[in-house]
Amino acid sequence: MRLLPKSLWSLAALSLLLAGCGETQSLQHYKVWSVTQNAWQSRTFVGSRGGIIITMASWCKYCAWEAKWQEPALIKWGQTHHVDVTLVDISPRAGIGIAGPKNNPNSGRDGNGKYLGTATAGIKALGSVLRRYAAVYHEPLTHFTIDPLNHTIFAQKTQELPTIFILNSQGKIIYTFNGITSASRIESTVPS
To answer: Which residue range(s) make up the domain with 80?
Structure first.
């Protein structure tokens, strides 16, 4: 039996190791409505260090509280740390929630609004509501999308508004927070 030279064994071992490492999982793409582009788009929701998805509704008083008191700092933090922060409206109903004071989210008010439906006209109408919402709560419109058809796993897994999903850089959900959650607690769960 003839043995291979040591350099060939090393090369073979390295090839096997690299072949195993080459099995990367592609990021999940989700079909959502882009509020800024007023059209469907495919999104991964992940920056180089991960993503933060906040499922919300424009009419929800707790979502409004998050928008006023938590999300501006969270969005700024995400930009600095290469973490995509996205607000996904999952309820095709008009109305803008009124945020309560910082120390009492319960004292806010749900916004009134009719059901807009999930047809294109209703989704475009919700996009108009979100443009007003972004102006009221001083949030960048580019962070808003709409998923009234439950195309995303985030819409499907939401049990309470708002729900916050933390994604690693491969797009896998690693933490979920139901209801109001402090920005610092959310930030602390994003992998470094």
So the answer is: 28-188
